[in-house]
Write a structure and sequence with these properties.
2 copies of one chain form a homodimer. The first copy, chain A, is mainly alpha-helical. Chain A contains 10 helices and 3 strands. The longest helix of chain A is centred in the first third of the chain and has 22 residues. At the A-B interface, helix 3, helix 4 and strand 3 of A face helix 3, helix 4 and strand 3 of B.
Chain lengths: 226, 226
């Protein structure tokens, strides 16, 4: 078990030194190790991360519509991004895991690393308040947000879904109109995105068929990337 | 168009008087009316609401596991709850809507009301910072959170999905095992929840078949209640 002194490099990388080292320990404790573990901290950390990244995107891109901000955020807070950040922090070596998880390589499991990182955000809030979490999130995410080129449009969800499936050698999805709703001037199209190979069907709505398809693809990506 | 004086009762109900009345106006402006409208504010308000409700549930229920906190939050931040709060604030009379929306009763549309309420949270943040939003969210949600009885378990997602469908005279969902993943000690079950009448299939995962079914039902509810 890593002592408090051993956690100094991690706290330096986060840009926050915990007054309550117990909170830091809890954030690094997987439920397989015992209680207090990090699941409740992860719950609040996830919310804080989502809201802080939203605020930073809002400020950085004053002219982007909500849909684009939303897609940029989804990309920044998904497990894969958190996993990469956790690797940079060398978070695996600080985790407390039960024996089963230890043996099966839990220290490297992307979901365990991503969850612990979110728990660190939650613990930072309890230790020192909202602005302290803003500081930690900024330390980690500023380079990623700075690297976003708003002129270069992000790939749309249909394209990303297609690439996700192709990378896994799975057949492409089919989009099926399943209906419309509302009067003519506020008509909404409803489209189903069917991915038989993954036994998944999602639905999207929008004021055009294309918009509904994109939303359905977005929902499918969310389900598949979980 | 409501003048600033006309917005005094709303600000009293929120417990926040805006220094920048332009932010308040923008939060009340639907995109059908013109720009600046409230979609970007809604984006940040949604994140803030989610994180603040998470923090309040975390503090109020020190012993509830993450899954229960998550379900309680989903219930508090869903459109129906926001719509009810917006009605209490009489938010409809303050909204600025384009002519088409006005004629089709946009003032009463639950999604428009819920979105404007979220936009008000975002506007409050920009006007006065995080603690000011905590104040507004607390004003509105404290009675709802106080009314939660942790001893009385919330209905589980499968039950709620069944009730949702029955209320709409639709046939019940079917749950189909679609596979398992992982080694024996970390095995995950994958279950599909199929709702033919709504042309919706969702997926759930869990360490038991029951847990996977509940997660699939939860995903279906999220899709249906959108």
């Amino acid at each position: 078990m890593a002592g408090s002194l051993g956690l100094a490099p991690l706290q330096r990388s986060l840009g926050h030194t915990f007054t309550d080292q117990g909170l830091l320990q809890a954030a690094l404790t997987h439920r397989s190790y015992g209680t207090p573990h990090n699941e409740r901290l992860e719950f609040i950390g996830d919310g804080l991360l989502n809201s802080i990244v939203a605020l930073q995107l809002y400020q950085r891109f004053p002219h982007l519509p909500e849909g684009d901000l939303s897609r940029l955020r989804a990309n920044l807070v998904r497990q894969d991004t958190l996993h990469q950040l956790a690797l940079k922090l060398d978070l695996g070596r600080y985790l407390l895991l039960g024996e089963g998880e230890l043996k099966s390589g839990g220290h490297q499991r992307p979901s365990i690393l991503a969850d612990a990182l979110e728990a660190l955000f939650g613990a930072t809030y309890l230790d020192a308040g909202f602005e302290a979490v803003v500081g930690v999130v900024t330390t980690l995410f500023a380079p990623l947000i700075a690297a976003i080129d708003p002129a270069k449009p992000m790939k749309d969800p249909k394209t990303r879904l297609q690439e996700w499936l192709q990378a896994r050698r799975k057949p492409l999805p089919t989009y099926v109109m399943s209906g419309t709703e509302g009067d003519a001037h506020v008509q909404e199209f409803i489209v189903a995105c069917e991915i038989q190979a993954c036994n998944l069907t999602t639905q999207g709505r929008g004021t055009s068929r294309r918009a509904a398809e994109q939303q359905a693809a977005e929902a499918a990506l969310r389900a598949l990337e979980k």
